[in-house]
User: Which sequence fits this backbone?
């Protein structure tokens, strides 16, 4: 579990500004009628406006929470994949037979769901810190992660820490679960067609393609989760309520707000995660 955690923590140092941009785009025109002018004209405009307002430091707002989230999430999501796959084989009596696509899919979805549950309080604070200082969404004044956690527990209690956990679990299943499955299936297919499993082009192409699969599956749930996490108390009764109100006021295309930024963030991020992970695995193999 240590290697996936380290890979994720290192990768987020580079991808965090895009994550912040994605959050602010997803909150743009929240519950506004279709046709209402947006605060940001798009990805580039959002980055430029945020940079002019607060510089590089502003684009890295909430970075410590981003690193913490990635370390914990990847430790569970990627680190438990092989153990869960092995355990399922022991239960099913698979023996030496290679796991089927269905078994790999079940392991990927399970790991994604577990990871989403484990990091939910961190996710709530991260989204609120990323939204703070932007032009969109409710503004939670959080001077630091410690102060934000104290305020969350004091003002909202356990319910605040578990806010949106159902939506987050669904996101963990649809997004990271689909991406992990896609990466492993694409890599297996590439190797089957003669690609070098240790070559960087294999890792890069499979990571980028798996990120596209993930964004297509998860962006609608991600938009809803971002809004539930950042909303003031009482605005939404649940993730389903947030999705229903979004569709009624903004239309279905709003579910893909920030999707380009999502991919621009996730694609390179997963290239880094899987690239670093493969490198760490090879280093461990040489030292053992």
Assistant:
């Amino acid at each position: 579990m240590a290697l996936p955690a380290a890979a994720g923590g290192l990768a987020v140092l580079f991808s965090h500004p895009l994550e912040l941009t994605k959050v602010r785009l997803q909150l743009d025109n929240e519950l506004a009628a279709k046709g209402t002018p947006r605060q940001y004209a798009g990805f580039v405009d959002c980055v430029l406006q945020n940079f002019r307002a607060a510089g590089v430091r502003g684009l890295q707002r909430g970075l410590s929470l981003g690193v913490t989230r990635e370390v914990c999430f990847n430790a569970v999501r990627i680190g438990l994949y092989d153990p869960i796959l092995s355990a399922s084989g022991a239960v099913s009596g698979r023996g030496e037979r290679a796991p089927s696509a269905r078994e790999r899919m079940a392991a990927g979805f399970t790991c994604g769901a577990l990871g989403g549950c484990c990091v939910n309080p961190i996710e709530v604070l991260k989204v609120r810190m990323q939204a703070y200082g932007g032009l969109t969404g409710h503004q939670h004044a959080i001077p630091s992660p410690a102060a934000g956690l104290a305020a969350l527990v004091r003002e909202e209690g356990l319910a605040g820490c578990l806010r949106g956990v159902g939506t987050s679990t669904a996101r963990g299943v649809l997004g990271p679960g689909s991406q992990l499955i896609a990466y492993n299936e694409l890599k297996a297919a590439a190797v089957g067609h003669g690609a070098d499993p240790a070559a960087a082009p294999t890792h890069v192409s499979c990571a980028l393609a798996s990120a596209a699969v993930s964004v297509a599956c998860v962006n609608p749930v991600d938009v809803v989760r971002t809004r539930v996490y950042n909303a003031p108390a009482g605005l939404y009764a649940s993730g389903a309520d947030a999705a229903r109100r979004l569709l009624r006021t903004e239309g279905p295309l709003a579910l893909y707000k920030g999707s380009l930024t999502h991919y621009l963030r996730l694609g390179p991020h997963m290239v880094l995660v899987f690239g670093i992970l493969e490198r760490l695995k090879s280093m461990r193999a040489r030292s053992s």
Q: What stands out?
A: The two ends are 17 Å apart (CA to CA). The longest helix spans residues 200-230.
